[in-house]
Amino acid sequence: MSVSKKQLVANRRNAKKGGVKTLEGKALTRLNALKHGLLSQEVLLAEESEETLTDLERRLVSDLQPEGELERIMVDRIVSSMWRLKRALMVERETMAWEYIQETESDYNRSYVSKEQTRRQAYRDMIASDHTEKITRYETAIERQIYKALHELIRLQMARRGEKPPAPVAIDLEVSQGN
Fold first, then answer.
1. Do residues 32 and 25 touch, judged by C-beta distance below 8 A?
2. Higher-confidence residue: 6 or 164?
């Protein structure tokens, strides 16, 4: 579909008139290009609040001020990772509470040890359970994702401003048995 010459001239004339002129207007519209809702469809579970996720995204975009698609992708990664980290912390809390209840309500514990000792055992077991260890590993992996995306965002922003970004830091560790 082509545009007539007359329409093209009118479009150019109108484009010169339009646009946000004030600093206040620019502040209000600077985030218009973000794809609202897309991120929430990717990371949101049915019982989770889209409003809360959108608010997190809005606050992080405001704090991190991405420009361009690559910076927006890094901020999206940070938002989704932070959302997953919050979820993991909730799962950890709920799992540990369940483990504690299972331990304190056990008939075995009531029969042989004091209530205080039962409570101590329950705390020990909820912290040392396989479920808690798996969740902790998951949290650690998510935190690494957040820091990796944040460091890359900082490098992109420094390059955009004409500054020399530091080289990415990667450390390879080799763990071996001592002989």
1. no
2. 164
Structure tokens at 168: 């990415």
Find tokens 């209000």 and name the residue.
28
pLDDT at site 154: 95
Q: What's the average model confidence in pLDDT over 93-107?
A: 74
Angle 71-44-99 (CA atoms, 0-180°, nearest 5)?
120
Going 22 to 27 to 33 to 35, the CA torsion angle's sign is negative
Q: What's the whole-number average pLDDT of the chain?
A: 78
The pTM of the whole model exceeds 0.85: no
- Total number of domains constituting the chain: 1
153 in a structural domain:
yes
> Can you give the pLDDT at residue 18?
61
Residue 172 lies in a domain: no
Residue 43 lies in a domain: yes
How much of the chain exceeds pLDDT 90, in percent?
35
Question: In angstroms, rounded to a whole number, what is the distance separating the alpha carbons of residues 63 and 50?
Answer: 20
Q: Which amino acid is present at 10?
A: A
Q: Which of 44, 76, 73 minimizes the C-alpha distance to 58?
A: 76
Structure tokens at 160: 């955009």
With the C-alpha atoms ordered 91, 92, 96, 97, is the resulting torsion angle positive or negative?
negative
Give the domain range for residue 52: 36-160
| 170 within some domain | no
